[in-house]
Design goal:
Distance between the termini of chain A: 38 Å
Order of helices and strands of chain B: HEHEHEHEHEHEEHEHHEHH
Largest sheet of chain B: 5 strands, parallel
Number of helices of chain B: 11
Radius of gyration of chain A: 20 Å
Distance between the termini of chain B: 30 Å
Largest interface: A-B, 24 and 28 residues
Number of strands of chain A: 18
Helix content of chain A: 25-40%
Shape of chain B: globular
Oligomer: heterodimer
Largest sheet of chain A: 8 strands, mixed
Shape of chain A: globular
Helix content of chain B: 25-40%
Number of strands of chain B: 9
Strand content of chain B: 5-15%
Strand order of the largest sheet of chain B: 7-6-5-8-9
Chain lengths: 416, 326
């Protein structure tokens, strides 16, 4: 039980499960939401006036590469599933247990257990022991598991343990050491490139394996029309599949790498304009279940290099919310659906009692001004590094206050 | 030999670029300007006393992060014939840590107040990265699979000496297009000058969407040769290949080697070029490489020095306070 006073957030617009957005208030006690809707503060409560802004669930992120609390808090993220690609990797229970504690009390880290020992894609790691040490799902890591037999056994085993396997959708043989998607841009720049079909190829195999194993599978980033088509069909066939994407793939195409811009060096690489539009369509029609940050802060030592030598990844925690809000403003999705994508669906995958504003859920709450304009500036990020491909881009949507377990989190705003 | 094709804007407006990172971004008249500027150096190089003092007192650093013999030598001779102090910095890729070191090395060269830096690097885009960090002009001597602009310019100069012009000229480039910066720069340069460029390679060695660079794509070498005025052969870049791209050199030669019989499929006066180093007996037969009057391979080397002299001269005019270039 929390020793903090109960919290009542008043005078806001509640983003409710099911998508309704209604005026109201919310009360929390002992770290949990106790009442939603027409609520009045009781004596002794901490009262926060939302001043008519959105009261939304704290964002739940899946597949981040670093615990970068200032960036997550700035972005309204209260929980994040940490990739096992740490140094050393999260492939033994002790490291998982340590990682699970590493964000508390104001941020919760949900470690993703490494699927294989040392993430080498060969021998299964001790997934059951890691589950009981706090891992909420399993991840194959940055690498694709090339051995189909290993992948099948992994899906069967994790499925038995009630854990989803989060995988990467890129056929390793086709990708090799590619750093770009094959096409005019990569050809002009002379960058090692792999065909976009590498994604659909990997998804086709893994969907078949998931169907054989009758086990849940999650593709962390699906970025091509062909890959999304496979998942759309698989969902109608009852395969237990979910998938996510980061805003980069609905905001940018491979044009962004022109001039060898390493901040646009991502994994998987940015795709064609047609694929970008397919991602937006898949968000609209429900094929994509979640939008995540893929947060991977990288300093000059990893990014101020020739493109092929640079490390892929972007600092995405701060721009996740505003870039998703752009889809709301463009009429692609409703406000309610935005928070399904950002909070409810990821929480469901992890099996955590959060991501939605209802009595009994943990009181992770963000007060958000969905329209507030600001300009992304890679020199003034809350993140530990400013590697964003959205530098100098005007966006809308900002977190005004954040509560983890009903307790206010101090959101550090970088100096302007 | 060839009279100037254009009248150019006065002074710096004729070539307003700070450095030479690639052919991409150069207007056709800027390419012609460099070719025309090179003509005086062709003549000088053919004279007894091959010496100018145009760059006297200037320091040129050739920073080669990737092995090179002919390009390095060509740049060194070009600088010395113009009277510059030329320093070579040869850094085998293996012995230098990549990364920050590259920028640090560039900053070091910059601090030594070089007047021009010539860079070769194994990674595409490395030269552009350095060009953004130093104060002096940077010349790209080949970056990864991206560009090798002076090679394209010297090839264009060689063609211009041997043929009347570029309009409608059919040039077939055959070989490892995928890994070739020479191919990319030549495609950009030749199409910009009005030539019709064909590229020929097996599918595995052909980059995606290359036709978007205004070239015609062939996999059948015989078909690609029909009607060609110039045949440009490229080396197989085994060192850049990850995985197997062709079954064997013997089989590659069978499909893509330039023999006398194959050359007969091209125009009767078709010219043969190769940027070197050649793999005789693989992509080009010896009797083709040495075919007098048809093979331009040694002329290419000769034009290379003149083109590099022209680039060094033009790009240092601002620093030398040449009238109209400040």
């Amino acid at each position: 039980m929390s020793s903090h006073a109960p919290l009542t957030i008043t005078n806001g617009r509640l983003v409710l499960p099911g998508g309704a957005v209604t005026p109201g208030a919310i009360r929390c006690e002992g770290g949990f939401i106790t009442a939603v809707g027409e609520v009045t503060a009781q004596s002794g409560d901490m009262v926060h006036d939302a001043k008519g802004k959105l009261i939304a669930p704290g964002l739940v992120d899946i597949g981040v590469f670093a615990i970068d609390k200032p960036a997550f808090h700035f972005g309204g993220i209260t929980r994040a599933a940490l990739m096992p690609d740490q140094n050393p990797p999260l492939d033994v229970p002790a490291r998982v247990r340590f990682a699970a504690q590493s964000g508390k009390p104001d941020f919760w880290v949900h470690p993703l257990a490494a699927a294989t020992q040392n993430l080498e894609g060969e021998k299964l790691a001790e997934i059951a022991l890691m589950r009981d040490a706090g891992a909420k799902a399993v991840a194959t890591g940055r690498q694709w598991i090339g051995n189909s037999g290993t992948m099948l056994r992994l899906l069967q085993y994790a499925g038995m343990l009630g854990m989803t396997v989060c995988t990467r959708a890129e056929d390793g043989g086709l990708v090799g050491k590619a750093v770009a998607t094959a096409g005019e841009m990569a050809t002009r720049l002379g960058l090692p490139a792999a065909p976009a079909e590498a994604e659909a190829l990997a998804i086709a195999r893994d969907l078949t394996l998931a169907q054989m194993a009758k086990a849940p599978i999650h593709f962390r980033k699906v970025t091509t029309a062909a890959g999304l088509d496979l998942i759309r069909t698989a969902k109608t066939q009852g395969i237990l599949v979910t998938c996510g994407v980061t805003p980069a793939y609905f905001m940018l195409s491979d044009l962004a790498v022109s001039g060898f811009r390493t901040f646009a060096h991502l994994s998987p690489p940015l795709r064609s304009e047609d694929d970008r539009k397919a991602v937006i369509a898949a968000i609209a029609d429900g094929t994509i279940d979640m939008i995540v940050s893929g947060h991977d802060p990288r300093g000059p030592e990893d990014k101020r290099l020739p493109f092929t030598d640079s490390t892929p990844g972007m600092a995405g925690a701060e721009t996740l919310l505003p870039l998703t809000m752009s889809l709301v403003r463009d009429g692609v999705i409703s406000l309610g659906r935005a928070f399904d994508l950002l909070a409810a669906n990821p929480a469901k995958l992890l099996g955590v009692n959060a991501g939605r504003l209802e009595s009994g859920a943990e009181a992770d709450i963000a007060v958000i001004d969905a329209d507030r304009p600001w300009i992304v500036d890679s020199d003034k990020m809350a993140a530990s590094a400013g590697n964003t491909p959205f530098d100098k881009q005007p966006v809308q949507g900002r977190v005004l206050a954040l509560f983890k377990g009903g307790v206010a989190v101090k959101v550090k705003v970088p100096k302007a | 030999m060839t009279s100037p094709t254009y009248t150019y804007p006065e002074g710096r407006a004729a070539f307003p670029h700070r450095g030479l990172v690639g052919i991409a971004g150069l207007a056709p008249h800027e390419i012609h300007y460099l070719l025309d500027e090179a003509e005086q150096w062709v003549e000088l190089n053919r004279s007894a006393l091959k010496r100018s003092e145009v760059l006297s007192g200037l320091t040129i650093i050739n920073a080669f992060f990737e092995n090179s013999t002919r390009t390095l030598l060509s740049f060194e001779i070009a600088g010395k014939r113009l009277g510059a102090d030329v320093v070579n910095m040869l850094v085998a890729q293996s012995s230098v840590k990549k990364g920050e070191t590259l920028i640090d090395t560039a900053m070091t060269l910059n601090a030594m107040r070089a007047d021009a830096i010539v860079i070769r690097h194994a990674s595409s885009g490395a030269v552009q990265l350095i060009a953004g960090k130093v104060d002096c002009p940077v010349l790209n001597a080949g970056d990864g699979q991206h560009e090798h602009p002076t090679q394209a310019l010297l090839d264009a100069l060689t063609i211009r000496h041997a043929k009347r012009g570029f309009n409608g000229l059919r040039v077939t480039i055959c070989g490892d297009i995928l890994h070739s910066r020479v191919a990319r720069s030549n495609i950009l340069c030749l199409t910009s000058l009005g030539a019709e460029v064909r590229v020929c390679a097996p599918p595995a060695l052909m980059p995606a969407d290359i036709e978007r660079m205004n070239v015609e794509v062939f996999h059948d070498f015989d078909a690609a040769l029909k009607g060609a005025d110039v045949v440009m052969m490229l080396r197989l870049q085994m060192e850049r290949m990850q995985g197997q791209f062709i079954p064997s050199p013997r089989e590659y030669r069978y499909l893509y080697g330039l023999s006398l019989d194959r050359l007969a499929l091209a125009e009767p006066d078709a010219l043969v070029m190769h940027p070197g180093p050649m793999n005789r007996g693989i992509e080009i037969d010896s009797n083709v490489a040495d075919l007098a009057g048809r093979s331009l391979i040694t002329q290419q080397v000769e034009m290379g020095v003149a083109i590099r002299m022209a680039c060094l001269d033009v790009l240092t005019r601002n620093a030398r306070r040449v009238e109209g270039w400040q």
